[in-house]
Specification:
The protein has 154 residues and is an alpha+beta fold. It has two domains: 58 residues; 61 residues. Helices cover 51% and strands 25% of the residues. α1 packs antiparallel against α2. The radius of gyration is 30 Å and the shape is elongated. The N and C termini lie far apart (63 Å).
């Protein structure tokens, strides 16, 4: 862990002994190494805090519960999973159907399973429906509903 620090001192001492530079330059090098050893952890800590704060601000700005707008809710996000035999033009068919349904494709993941004629393709589509708006409940409200459903007789 401290090997680079020690090696800096060893190299500087060796160079001083070989006459590559004088004692004044050696003192400047030792001072620079000591200063960097002391200040680096504090500077790194400040950089980490800064970027953690930026991450918190970004997550808060993208929180659907905090979004400003028409107040009617957030768009509906869907995960569509399709498993089918390998056919030609399958991705084009997905694209056409998503356009017909007014769904915005966010991400698509395709996995091929097997080889030969009996191979299957699993496609995961992550889409956003802009036509349907939903209201997200806070976690406390979700827990109250869940506990009420569990307590009610069936």
């Amino acid at each position: 862990m401290y090997l680079p620090i020690y090696s800096s001192f060893i190299i500087a001492a060796f160079a001083l002994g070989e006459g590559l530079f004088n004692a004044r330059i050696y003192a400047a090098i030792v001072w620079a190494v000591l200063l960097s050893c002391i200040s680096s952890p504090f500077i790194l800590l400040q950089v980490i805090k800064y970027f953690n704060q930026k991450q918190v601000e970004y997550l808060a700005s993208t929180n659907p519960l905090k979004q400003k707008g028409d107040g009617k809710g957030s768009p509906l996000y869907l995960h569509i999973k399709c498993r089918a035999p390998v056919t030609r033009g399958q991705q084009e068919i997905f694209r056409e159907k998503l356009n017909e349904l007014n769904l915005v494709l966010i991400d698509r993941r395709t996995n091929r399973q097997g080889r030969g004629l009996d191979a299957t393709v699993q496609t995961d589509l992550y889409v956003r429906d802009e036509t349907i708006k939903i209201r997200l409940q806070k976690i406390g409200a979700q827990r109250r509903i869940k506990s009420a459903l569990q307590e009610s007789p069936r």
